[in-house]
Amino acid sequence: MANAALGFLLQTLRYLAEREASLFRGLKIEEIQLELESMLSFLKVADRRKIREMDDDGVQTWVGQVREITYKVEDVIDKYMYHVAELQLQADGGLLQRTLSKTLLLPKRYSHNRKIASELQTIKSEIHEISERYKRYCLLEEGSTSNTNDDGGGENWQHLRQQARLIPDVDIVGIEESKNFLIKRLTESDQVPERVVLPVVGMGGLGKTTLVTKVYNHSKVKSHFDCHAWITISQTYKVDELLRNLMKELCKSTNEPIPNGVAEMDTIEISEMLISYLQTKRYVIVLDDVWNAIAWQHIQLALPDNGCGGRVMITTRMDDFASSFGVGNVLRLGHLGNDDAFVLFCSKAFSNKSCPLHLKPYAERLVQKCEGLPLAIVTIGGLMAMKEKSSLEWSMVEASLSWQLGNNKDLGGLKNILLLSFNDLPYNLKYCFLYCSLFPEDCLITQKRLIRLWVAQGFIQERRGLTLEEVAADYIKDLVCRGMLQYAESALRFKKKVRMHDVLRELAISIGQEENFCYINDGKEETLNKKARYLSMCRSVVNIGPSNCHLRSLMLFKTEITSLSLRGILSSFKLLRVLDLEDSPIKSLPDELVELFNLRYLSLRNTNVEELPESIGRLQNLQTLDIRGSKINILPRGVKKLKKLRHIYTYRRHQSLLTGNFSHYKFAQAPDGICNLKCLQTLERIGANNEIVKEIGNLTQLRKLTIEKVERNHGVELCASLRKMEGLRLLNVISTREEEILNIEALSSPPTHLETLILHGRLERLPLWIVSLQNLTSVALHWSQLNEDPLSSLQALPNLMILYLTEAYVGKELCFRCRHFLQLKELCIAQLAQLNKIKFEEESMSCIHLLFLFDCPNLKNVEGTQYLTSLQLLFLKEVSGELLGKIRGDEWVDFQHIPQLLNFNSTKGAYERLHQVFHTQVPSGAQDYQGGRRKGR
């Protein structure tokens, strides 16, 4: 982890050397940069050795010293940037003020420079001493820096792989279905004679190796093949060694002697020998723990597709790699269900496999924390088997699980397996992963929020042609593919949120505390880790003093913090980059806020704050300002001075869209000049006028735009401005009143990357340019009052996933044609007063999950629901009694396959079940939505 901190610092130093060279002239930053770069390769080896030899105090001490000196350099750089910003703000003003400032502030700047230079000189001496100590005590074995065969875990790693293959059958539950699937695919050689690759993918600890072992050793499998081999592939490997071992294993399986000269052969020679050997044989080969496609590319060349039914099973944690072999061949290993998980836990924790009643609540919570991860269940169950069977003892273990994971040797196997995934992460992703642990347990984290936080902290590396936010989105996909994060997939959210597995979060907390990276206070402790750089507090606020002055991030969750206590906190945190006060009960902001010159992210969402200070313009580095749900009605003029601002969120809900009222959101009024903020990517919202619709075209970096109070005469100028926003992903246009016509026909060349389109207001016709937007995934038409059926045009959108029609059509019938809307997952039809009939033709909407039919009082016929085989929820509200009667009566057969079938009874003010199979709660958000998008962060 220390190499991640150093790598992150070097990235910052290189950026400053390129972009801010004039500021650091004379401070000799480059000398420290060179010294640190020379240490980075040794740090990587040291981190690997730390994994192999957990008790090597010398290595751990040295690595800790490097980490601390890295943090010191970062602190000095940030303090210097803080003072530069402070002096720059003091120098701003008129000609006279600037002249006086140059005279008065020059000595102050020289004084700061001398102080910073002195601190850097001291740090340079410390770095030199650390380097000398490294050489003096030979902390790393000679030549270890070039050891290309280091597997990141040595004998310990190999031991863990062997353990997974030796688990007795009595300790295995919940794999029967997966085992049968693999056995069937392996032994269908007569039907499928081609070589078939079967990847088994999942996060570390799910039991991939254990499952494949049981399949590999099954008598039906062994008897089906002429030869077999099992090869374990480490994170670092030598191709010739892998192929050599493969040859040996194959010969061993057939009791043949190993060919002479194998030990001296190069990669090409061994590959040719393997091809010759396997050419006429039906073989099965297991490649265990493959980390990337490169290893497979090397090995697959030696595995001929000989038409004899060869099979290859691969275990991997990398979902993108597994997916490359085709959907039908991939086995994604899931987590154990609650019952299987509890049975497995009890089999390890209790000699009689039965849980005593007084321990059952603790056992259930421990199992719940494991979230169906077999390795965690077995390991923690084994730990509890050695504990006294008392409530006090079990409650102590439960309360200290993150500490146990980091320090208890009985959990070492679990930690090391999970650490393999963590250590394989690039240093940027390590920071991003650990940062996720700041969110409360079981928290569903909105991707957009996480992205903005990562960008604010500087964790994201630049890539040519992409914004930092787009790179961060790739980071999330990478972490999900590696099993380090999970999509919080539900019927109402389409990969918009992620979560951490509880055990991985405990691992992250353990690493974060050990490395002084982050600290999570859940109200159970009164003291803080004074060295932690990223802090979150849940439910209560503990004392924070000047000793925490190097804090970079402060996130509060459900705390009762007051404005007075916030003042005391902010006065100590001059280097803060992130201040997230969401849901805090504060009513006002202390003056100290505008002294946080390094602040990049400020969230006042759902607070009681009524106004922002006019001097907010002093926060020159601010990137994100989120005041959604607060009581702020006007953005101060100072906002237009925030030249680095990337995201502004201002709306708050005052009515549900389902009330039928045209205006259901209120927005803070933006000041004149806001269109000069050229870095803006998100603008929610801005009121239109004759000047705004022209000037908004200056915001060419916009990705999300909501513009309200649009009048018909604004149309031409607005369309001209929208044509300049080539990167726009979301467009929400709201007319000034319900009867006002949105004149947007002139948008002849709409932004080609547009993904979400929301139109609030009357349309004379559906704009022709909509059908050209092949990337559209979400469309919402509200109060459009179209005379022509919009589906005839919308059905041409190949990637449409969400469609909302609210008072959008005045006709009597809607028909979803055969082989159209094939990607649609969510459909809402609301407030179509004249609508009498909806028809779904066969082979339409084959992916639909959610169907909402609201406030259509004349809707009497819904035909073709039997074809919507993927539908999970049908939610009705204010439809005709005739339709409800048909669903309950003669047409029940067409609806009975839908798992959740609900009707809102307005008389009773409650939901009623129309389906006996209904077995879950009403999905949150089913009765409240915003313009075709769920309420996001």
Commentary on this structure:
The protein is 36% helix and 15% strand. It has an 18-stranded mixed beta sheet, sandwiched between helices. A five-stranded parallel beta sheet has the order 2-3-4-1-5, with helices on both faces. The chain starts with a helix and ends in a 24-residue tail after the last strand. Among the domains are: 2-146, no CATH class; 154-332, Rossmann fold (3-Layer(aba) Sandwich); 338-416; 428-501, Arc Repressor Mutant, subunit A, CATH 1.10.10.10; 777-937. Residues 50-55, 141-155 and 916-937 have low confidence and may be disordered. The protein contains 27 helices and 31 strands. The chain has 937 residues and is an alpha/beta fold. Strand 11 (553-557), helix 23 (563-570) and strand 12 form a beta-alpha-beta unit.
What is the CATH fold-level name of the domain at 154-332? Rossmann fold
Structural class: alpha/beta
pLDDT averaged residue by residue: 83
Distance between the termini: 30 Å
Poorly predicted runs: 50-55, 141-155, 916-937
GO biological process, one term: defense response to other organism
GO molecular function: ADP binding
Domain Disease resistance N-terminal: 5-88
Domain Disease resistance protein winged helix: 438-508
Write the layout of secondary structure elements.
Elements: H1 2-19, H2 29-52, H3 57-91, H4 95-137, H5 154-165, H6 176-186, E1 196-201, H7 208-216, H8 219-224, E2 227-232, H9 239-253, H10 267-278, E3 283-290, H11 293-300, E4 311-316, H12 319-323, E5 331-332, H13 338-349, H14 360-370, H15 374-385, H16 391-399, H17 401-407, H18 412-423, H19 427-436, E6 445-446, H20 447-457, H21 468-481, E7 486-487, E8 497-499, H22 502-514, E9 518-521, E10 534-538, E11 553-557, H23 563-570, E12 578-580, E13 601-603, E14 624-626, E15 647-649, E16 652-653, E17 665-666, E18 682-687, H24 692-695, E19 704-710, H25 715-722, E20 730-735, E21 756-760, E22 778-782, H26 791-794, E23 802-806, E24 813-816, E25 826-830, E26 837-840, E27 850-856, E28 861-863, E29 873-879, H27 881-888, E30 900-905, E31 910-913
Parallel strand pairs: 1-4, 1-5, 2-3, 3-4, 9-10, 10-11, 11-12, 12-13, 13-14, 14-15, 15-18, 18-19, 19-20, 20-21, 21-22, 22-23, 23-25, 24-26, 25-27, 26-28, 27-29, 29-30
Antiparallel strand pairs: 6-8, 7-8, 16-17, 30-31
